[in-house]
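User: Restriction endonuclease, Sphingobacterium paucimobilis HER1398:
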Amino acid sequence: MIPEIELLNAHFSGQKWDNDTQRAFMELLKEENFFNGEGANDPAFSARDRINRAPKALGFVILSPTISLTPAGFELVNSKRKEEIFLRQLLKFQVPSPYHRPSANSAEFWVKPYLELFRLIRHFGSLKFDELMIFGLQLVDYREFDEIVKKIDDFRVSKAQHEGNYKKFRAEYLDKELRDIYAEDIIAGNTKTRETNDASVTKFLKTKASNMRDYADACFRYLRATGLVNISHIGKSISIVPEKIQEVDYFLQNTDREPCFIDNEKRYVDYLGNAETPTLLSDNRELLEQKISSEFPHITIPKTATLQELKDIFADEIERRKEQILTDQVTAIKDYHLFDEINSTFEQILDNSLYDTPLMLEWNTWRAMTMLDGGSIKANLKFDDFGNPMSTAQGNMADIVCDYDDFGLTVEVTMQSGQRQYETEGEPVTRHLAKVKKETNKPAYCLFIAPNINEACVAHFYALHKMNISYYGGKSTIVPLPLNIFIKMLEDSHKASYVPEPKHVQQFFERSNELANSTDNEQDWYNGITKEALNWLNE
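Assistant: Predicted structure for Restriction endonuclease:
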């Protein structure tokens, strides 16, 4: 969202948001490194889909009468602590509003949904993904908060008493709730969905369940982007970070639950785009000083410091603490103290039993590469204030970059499979490798890891070994490996009688170059390099 609204503002500020600017925006966006997508079929629609939804709905951009960033949008692009800016906007988002007018046959909305979801999580201490999906999304009116609480309590009691398969229990419970929610549509026969001519109730409910899962997933991601919640990837639950409970309690007590300016778009736009409302704990000088003193007792707070200077002091200390946590993590990883945990996390990834598998794959591969050998290993994913993985790397950079002094290595990971793997990963992987070559001015290779490797990717990366393309900095040594093979390489490094060194990594990739030159088809090369990987530390 951030680089896209920055691009929109830089090139189209003051212009009308019409078909021409929408198409022009998409043409520019497709050229940017951070763009992941196509936008090819209907560029104007793709532009509206990207900008009219979250950026406009959360008050970061104004599109009428002309395009501009709101004060909140400007802060999101430029501020150091973006989580605080994002939080304010989530807390103001409401239905109904001049932007969101529910249709006549939809539920009676009267809610600031994210404010109430924070309240729900705080009430229970922890909320499972299924609970948020099945019941949290039914909180369409804040005055029904207690009813939703009772529904979740009843669900937990029924689950505790149920002795059979949980998946079956959950499916039956969800079906019952959906039949209650959409009872009028089902009775009236309004069960045809947009994408199909199938008007059966079964198909209708399946579509609604899928939509609910997508909405719940978006809620989890938005809540996590505030930095105030922890996600348990194994338990698939969400809870307030213990150190942030005071901040959450503050806005829960001080933020008005009533939607406002429903029929006055100008006042609503001004209210929504205001970067200073609602009031957060950090806006209260006395409480902020108390928080700094309790979390960082070694800090002497200057009496003459402005509120903004105090916020900066607090932000800098949080950043320092995070860097120290990550440094300590790296030390523990390099000593192989986390070998068993890293291995079991890979097993959970292969079982697809974690909440956000793509994020966990990226984070765990960074840990594995850190443990594997020497070198400086940098993850480009975003960490929260306590060193936990928060979101995957932006689209304009490799997932992981390894510096081994004499050469570099990019590591790219994906859960994508089939043709989609090639379509979404093929070109960006090559571009990220070229970027590292150019920036470091030394040889670099790439390791591409996925649970399964698509044949088109094998063919593409084989060809790049042989093709001297100046745009990509010459020939590109990209080795695709299935995750289970990479896990075997990790196990070999653990049981080796010596500590693997960067030279062992370089030898492996140079062997890939030799195999590419000595084989006449991609399958022989791929079989050969996979076999090498299984014995990569044999002298």
